[in-house]
Amino acid sequence: MAPPGPPSVLRSPKGLATALTWLLGAAAAVRLFSAGVGAYEQSWLQGFAADTHFDDLELGVAPGLTILAGLLQVLTVLPAVVVFIVWFHRVRSNGGIFRPDAFTLGRGWAIGAWFVPVANLFLPCRVALQTWRASTQRGPDGSDRTASAALLMSWWVVWVLAATGDRVFSRIYMAAETVDELLAAGRLGIAADLVMTVAGVLALLFVRRLTAMQNTMATEGPYARV
């Protein structure tokens, strides 16, 4: 029989949550900027005939702004995604110490769930809900208490909608050849940017709330005072 591994220990997610506050805030601001660029591109494209081919458009400021917005998205989203997944794994690991019986999936799924096609539309939410429950203090008498997960679910639903919108927009935009087609794709892109901005703000609030819940569990114990 293999010797038992080292005991699990709580690790504070506060530092990661602070970093995420800045990273998610920056990512949301960039998506809002991208929506503004999309609106400007709409007005620029409306100056051309509807059947003008993409290759015949006279270059102006709009294409440069679009490239800038895309670059800023890469520079803000990638760090935010990496830090978020590290934070997510940490709070899941802490949750397993608080209440091992609250989980149906191993803590490795806090990372792996994001990379499984189709399943990544619901598995991370399942891990998050179970972590939320495990991070909720019991009553003074040891009875279960339920903390509203409305914030968590709002973030998840909005994020799935935004991510889906992004994928659809990318396909339509890449296939667009005329001004009319670019305008239609651009309107979808603006909507996706705005929804992703909201998703970023909700993600920030979710991170801060769950981090605070775990801090309370770590400092005050599993039983609420009142």
The ordered string of helix (H) and strand (E) elements is HHHHHH
Low-confidence runs (pLDDT<50, min 5 residues)?
1-6
Mean pLDDT: 87
User: Can you tell me the number of structural domains?
Assistant: 1
Give the C-alpha Rg. 22 Å
- What structural category do the secondary elements indicate? mainly alpha
Q: What does the model show?
A:
It is built from 6 helices and no strands. Helix 2 crosses helix 4 (123-134), helix 2 (61-98) runs parallel beside helix 6 and helix 5 (150-175) packs antiparallel against helix 6 (179-220). It is elongated and about 70 Å long. The protein has one domain. With 226 residues, the protein is mainly α. The chain starts with 13 loop residues before the first helix and ends in a 6-residue tail after the last helix. The longest helix has 42 residues, at 179-220.
Short synopsis of the structure:
This protein is 68% helix and 0% strand. The chain has helices at 14-45, 61-98, 109-112, 123-134, 150-175, 179-220. It is elongated and about 70 Å long.
